[in-house]
Amino acid sequence: MNTIADYTKDFSDGNKLSYEDFARKRCDWYNDTQGNLPYINCDICKNKGYIAELDTDLNEIRVECKCMSKRKSIKNLELSGLGNLIKKYTFNAYETSKPWQSEIKKKALLFTQNSGDSWFYAAGQSGSGKTHICTAICTRFISTGRLVKYKVWRNLFHELQSNQFDETEYKNKLAEYKQKKSILALEKKEQEKGSEKFKQLAEEERKLKEEEKQYKINAERYEEEHYKKPIAKYRTLTKSLKYYEILDDIELVIHVQASDETLCDIYNHIDDLKALGRSEDFVDVEDIQFVNLEQDEESYRSCYSAYLNYEDVMNERINTGWYENRDISGTKYYLGKKYDVSTGKRIFTEKVKVIYTSDFTIDETSENVWVDKEAETEDGQVYIVNFL
User: Fold this and answer.
1) What is the pLDDT of residues 275-325, one digit of tens each?
2) What pLDDT is recorded for position 232?
3) Who has greater pLDDT, 327 or 23?
4) Are 83 and 142 in contact (CB under 8 A)?
5) 375 and 309, same structural domain?
6) pLDDT band at 157 (very low <50, low <70, confident <90, very high)
7) Across the strands, what pairs with 362?
8) 319: which DSSP letter?
9) Residue 238 has what pLDDT?
10) Residue 203: inside a domain, yes or no?
11) Residue 85 to residues 133, 203, 289: CA-CA distances in angstroms?
């Protein structure tokens, strides 16, 4: 191994080194010294991670080598727990054959650019691509030197549970101290103050109280270190598994009654509709049409389930009583109709009572009951249209 003396031996007493020469020789010596950093081999820093340079005042400084970003990324990959998922689940490999998939990818890429302290939440049934898109996000973060950690929720849940403070044991221990103190207090009352027995019991009581105090302190420390601090970063996570009803493979037909201007606005921007109601209920719009509704005196039966205006059902403009001689067959709901936006949230100001049912009929159309003969169903039937 070379020393700094090896870099200055060519200078004799008659040819002394200047401070700048010595400083540069020292930098050369450091830069030629071999390091032992792992992961990759770098010819620039010799696996030390830093390069020696001189600043404008000829002070020796250490500058981080470019290889460190790669080393950090590889280390972050090891720490992430993602393993081989990173090679398989990338943004390029993410399928975007459906509109909702394109929307998720778009939001995921945006999140990697402007994440800050925000969250990216992906929910859906098995095989919908949650792991893929989240792994792609983690890979992008790792490539920029950020730390990520992959956790399987069921494993994390058990890990947090194992660290949870045993409150039952704590309460039982305090009850035990309380019982012992009560016994000592009763025994003290039976003794004459100042007697040796009284002093002995008083000392035992003092030690017991001190022991109880120390137990409480230790318990608080344990809870703080093993439960409160570890779980602090997961405050927004639930302590139990949650299940969400996801709408899937449902054919939905909606008739909209509005002004010509509003209808044209919907028609021109229908491709912007990505979800209906909840953000997780993705929508794939197959068709949109302008139709003319008709009224006549013929009877019709619906082959679809529908939300029907409660008043129209009660007034027998729509018939639902086809089972067990009941006048009305279906489930009653209150659907939000009008709302105001306050502090970024929708506040519904008006709800309408409806009956959700199937296999209903009409004997004829009426003021609020129409038929759509232009957009026929697959089996050639017409749509019964009832506005809410």
Assistant:
1) 777 776 788 888 888 888 888 888 888 888 899 999 998 888 898 865 555
2) 61
3) 23
4) no
5) yes
6) low
7) 300
8) B
9) 46
10) yes
11) 11, 64, 44
Number of domains in the chain: 4
| Contact residues for 4 (Cβ-Cβ < 8 A; gap 6+) | 25, 26, 29
Rounded Cα gap, residues 387 and 370, in angstroms: 9
Residue at token pair 């009832």? 386
Is pLDDT above 70 for 10?
no
Same domain, 368 and 316: yes
Please say if the pLDDT value at position 362 is more than 70.
yes
Residues of 308-330 as b/e, b for ≥16 C-beta within 10 angstroms? bbbebbeeebbbbbeeeeeebbb
Please report, for residues 24, 29, 40, 41, 51, the alpha-carbon distance to residue 46 in angstroms, rounded to integers and kept in the order given.
18, 12, 10, 7, 9
Share of residues in the chain with pLDDT > 90 (%): 12
DSSP state of 46: T
Is residue 8 in some structural domain? Answer: yes
Q: Of the given ranges (141-145, 185-189, 345-349), which has the lowest mean pLDDT?
A: 141-145
* 218: containing domain: 165-232
The two three-digit tokens of residue 366, written as one number = 């009426």
Chain centre to alpha carbon of residue 234: 10
**250 part of a folded domain:** no
Lookup result for tokens 């003021």: 367
